[in-house]
Amino acid sequence: MRIVTATAVVLALVGAVAPAATAHQAATDGIWRTDGYGTVLSIRNGTLQEYQTTAVSCIAGDTARRTGPGTYTTPGGGTVLTVRTRGDRDRASVRLDGDVGERNLRRMTELPEACTRSAPGGPLASFDVFWQSFEENYPFFAAKGIDWHAVRDRYRPTVHEGTTPDELFAVFSEMVAPLHDAHVAVMDVDGDGYPDRGFGRARPGTVLPNGTLDAEVKQFVVERDLKDARNLQDFGAGRITYADLPGGQGYLRISGFGGYAGDKAPYTAELAELDKALDTVLSQERTRHLKGLVIDLRINGGGSDAMGLHIAGRLTDTPYLAYSKRARNDPTDPTRHTRPQPLYVTPAQGPRYTGPVAVLTGGSTVSAGETFTQALMDRPGRTVRIGQPTQGVFSDIMVRKLPNGMSVWLPNEELLTRSGRTFDGTGVPPHLTEPVFTTEEFDQHKDSAFDRAVKVLRNQSLSSK
Fold first, then answer.
1. Is the dihedral of CA 244, 247, 248, 249 positive or negative?
2. Phi/psi of residue 164, each to 5°?
3. How far apart are CA 169 and CA 165, in angstroms?
4. Distances (CA, A) of 198 to 82, 171, 173
């Protein structure tokens, strides 16, 4: 799961001195409001300050120091933001490193009044900010059949100034549990500011990926599916696996779109490790002879959408639309959105594989694993999806702070196909349905989805002769 709105990167900022101001930086100084996202940015004297706003609150969020022309980097987590003007001094954009798309900014004359005064921090204030954050940003209440106003009416009377943190955490968890949204979470922190406990819930009948599940499935696949394979290799700290199958097909397993260069590595280092893997996997010699490629995303915890588009660029000779991205843009009207931003797959430099692809998916294909799956839907050439529907969570995650120190994670975006369809909640469906890592499959030492993929690719290879 993506736990912030972009891949976290680390640059050493302790004691760093902001570069001298330039004309460009002076042009971006001031107060800005994002279209959608409920965010105000204050940029002054080489410092960017985020404010998370609702109709009832304004809470200071992350800060970032200027580290280059138009770039700002947060300490600790090290998220890199790039701010650019758009020819009009009152319009600009902000892009988060490792994310796809950008967010439009409109200049404000001053901070909202709520951002200039102290806010109450008791349980009732935290409840109101929690509820309002969903009310103004969550896009899927209608689709999920949830009356959010009825939820407030039920739970707010149970909260009072004597409500303990444990009790409030339980209330928040009960409120969001019926959403069954893997991009929704309630988080509490310990005295040092580190996550102490969290609550989240996946789509019924699915399991969210974790390190233990990933390791168990990987061992099963290696011992069962790849026992006769050649050139079995791991890349990217074990998150990418490749092998040549006996029938001339290739097998590429991706368990996440990030984490390739170690903990807290900058996005540039992550991308370099990914390219190193892809240069080996899709070499000129291999792409010339490969008869089909199985891409296994069945246990994939997500990461950077940009890395997914980067990989897709190795699988086409023709640019095409991957998807369009939009966000809720009216606190009182969930049907209004920002203008959809088209995001494209661009052919990579160097060798590319353009032959048949079989993509394996399941309920443990989450977040960026799903956006990558969606990015391959209109890929020129033959691409077939096999297995089970993906988890059904595509948006970046908004991290909203609460007055009592807790935080809530929620989505506010939709990713649209060329025809305007979204797959939130239901997930991207397969073309061919097969069981995915069920108890019965494990007990019988079967992998029906993998076997079906190999058979489909073999038949396509024979039919093309």
1. negative
2. -80, 160
3. 6
4. 31, 13, 9
Token representation of residue 60: 């200071």
Q: What is the mean pLDDT of residues 444-462?
A: 93
Ramachandran bin of 432, using left for φ above 0, alpha for ψ from -120 to 50, beta for the remaining angles: beta
Residue 443, both tokens: 């007990």
Are 94 and 83 in contact by the 8 Å Cβ rule? The answer is yes
**3-class secondary structure, 142:** helix
| Single-letter amino acid, residue 274 | L
Residue 328 CA to residue 414 CA, distance in Å, equals 8
Give the separation between CA 193 and CA 334, rounded to whole angstroms: 33
- Whether the full predicted model's pTM is greater than 0.90, yes or no, is yes
463 φ/ψ angles, rounded to the nearest 5 degrees: -70, -20
Q: Name the DSSP class of 157.
A: G
What is the per-residue pLDDT across 411-452, written as a single tens digit (0 to 9) for each?
999 999 999 999 999 999 999 999 999 999 999 999 999 999
Supply the angle between the helices 123-137 and 165-176 in degrees, to the nearest 10.
Answer: 20
Rounded Cα distance between 112 and 116, Å, is: 7
Q: Which residues contact 113 (CB under 8 A, 6 or more apart)?
A: none
What is the distance between the alpha carbons of residues 116 and 96, in angstroms, rounded to a whole number? 26
More confident residue, 18 or 376: 376
In this structure, what token pair is assigned to residue 74? 């947060």
Q: Which of 414, 421, 337 is closest to 377 using CA atoms?
A: 421
% helix / strand / coil in the chain, to the nearest 5?
A: 30, 30, 45
Of 352, 389, 396, the closest CA to residue 374 belongs to: 389
DSSP calls for 211-238? HHHHHHHHHHHHHHTSTT-EEEEEEGGG
Which position has the token pair 């061992």? 219
Please give the DSSP secondary-structure letter assigned to residue 285: H
pLDDT over 50 (residue 2): no
pLDDT tens track for 28-54: 999 999 999 999 999 999 999 999 999
Q: Which of left, alpha, beta for 172 (phi over 0: left; psi -120 to 50: alpha)?
A: alpha
CB-based contact 126:406 (threshold 8 Å): yes
Spell out the residues 6+ positions from residue 169 whose beta carbon is closer than 8 angstroms to its own.
186, 188, 197, 199, 406
Residue closest to 327 by CA, chosen among 88, 13, 7, 5: 5
Tokens of 107: 């200049």
Strands 432-433 and 383-387: parallel
In whole angstroms, give the CA distance from residue 451 to residue 449: 6
In sign, the C-alpha dihedral spanning 171, 121, 37, 257 is negative
Six-digit token pair at 22?
A: 């330039």
The gap from C-alpha 310 to its chain's centroid, in whole angstroms, comes to 15
